[in-house]
Design a protein that fits this description.
single chain, mainly alpha, rod-shaped
Length: 137
């Protein structure tokens, strides 16, 4: 109680009995208890009025909303800048798309353009091995 040990409380009570006497001691203890109760009530009232004046509850609510927004933005940034995900996406692309060489196009005649119908093609991301002609050697 009040940061005092048993021996300190015993010494204070002995001194109180000596100074006040056994008839006034109970009344004095009641008065001390009333004083501490009123002090605690006053401190609580002051604390409540300060919180009401400062609108601490509103400020806390607003701060939590900003914190939530910042956390969401941070998670979104992590998701967008995830290196592993970007690497997986890039490795799935064809080497032809990533190369600097432009593919050579054959010029078709007007008849070929008109007669040719679009053919269904399958798209794969496998690398094609080019065979070199060594017949000139």
């Amino acid at each position: 109680m009040f940061g005092m040990g048993f021996t300190e409380i015993l010494i204070v009570s002995i001194i109180a009995i000596l100074f006040l006497g056994p008839d006034k001691l109970p009344g004095a203890m009641v008065e001390v208890a009333k004083f501490f109760r009123s002090l605690k009530k006053t401190i609580g009232t002051v604390k409540d009025s300060l919180e009401e004046e400062m609108n601490v509850a509103d400020i806390k609510e607003e701060a939590l909303a900003y914190k939530k927004e910042l956390l969401n933005a941070g998670n979104e940034l992590k998701r967008v800048t995830d290196v592993n995900q970007i690497g997986t996406t890039l490795s799935g692309l064809s080497d032809d798309i990533l190369s600097d060489e432009k593919p050579k196009k054959k010029k078709k005649s007007k008849e070929e353009k008109e007669n040719s119908e679009p053919k269904a093609e399958t798209v794969t991301f496998e690398k094609k091995i080019k065979k070199e002609d060594n017949s000139d050697v």
